[in-house]
Design brief:
Elements (H helix, E strand, L loop, with lengths): L1 E5 L5 H12 L7 E8 L3 E2 L2 E2 L2 E6 L3 H16 L2 E9 L1 E4 L3 E9 L2 H17 L3 E7 L2 E4 L20
Parallel strand pairs: 1-6
Antiparallel strand pairs: 2-8, 3-4, 5-7, 5-9, 6-8, 9-10
Helix pairs in contact: 2-3
Length: 157
């Protein structure tokens, strides 16, 4: 498992391939599920031209590592990679990569969703957006109506 928080832009697909080649034995996993979050040009009904992400070095990585370990304990997962940006982000740039390797797809999908929902809902990052009205701190993240607080898909009643 590896967690990286960095300022530099990254290519999520190259990072996934590089990590897999360096850390996973060939032929042992049947699935790799990736999630790539990118910077949108809108939020809460406002146009957004750029965003600044702040974090607490050391603490943030420890929190993300803990949730990755939880996912590895809940599901049959071989490895997890999380790469998250901080600093200034521009529209269209990747913000976060979550990659999960497993023998079977269901475990990889569930673990990946669990990790990204933690990152979106509770990870210690602070966002300041640049809008036409000026700079504003984001008070809450966008909820995913398809999941509950455990990061699992809601079942229809």
């Amino acid at each position: 498992m590896k967690v990286i928080v960095q300022e530099q832009p990254f290519d999520p697909y190259r990072e996934t391939r590089r990590y897999e080649e360096q850390h996973l034995p060939p032929g042992k996993h049947g699935a790799v599920v990736t999630f790539v979050g990118t910077m949108r040009d809108f939020n809460d009904g406002h146009e957004v031209s750029r965003m600044f992400l702040e974090y607490y070095p050391g603490m943030t990585e420890r929190h993300i590592e803990a949730v990755c370990l939880e996912a590895m304990e809940k599901w049959d997962v071989m490895d997890v990679l999380v790469l998250h940006r901080h600093g200034e982000l521009r529209v269209g740039e990747p913000i976060v990569l979550v990659a999960v390797w497993s023998a079977h797809r269901a475990h990889a999908f569930d673990a990946c969703r669990y990790v990204i929902n933690y990152l979106k809902e509770r990870a210690p990052f602070w966002k300041c957006e640049s809008t036409p009205e000026g700079m504003r701190w984001v008070e809450h993240n966008t909820a995913d109506p398809g999941v509950n607080s455990e990061g699992l898909k809601r079942r229809s009643a």
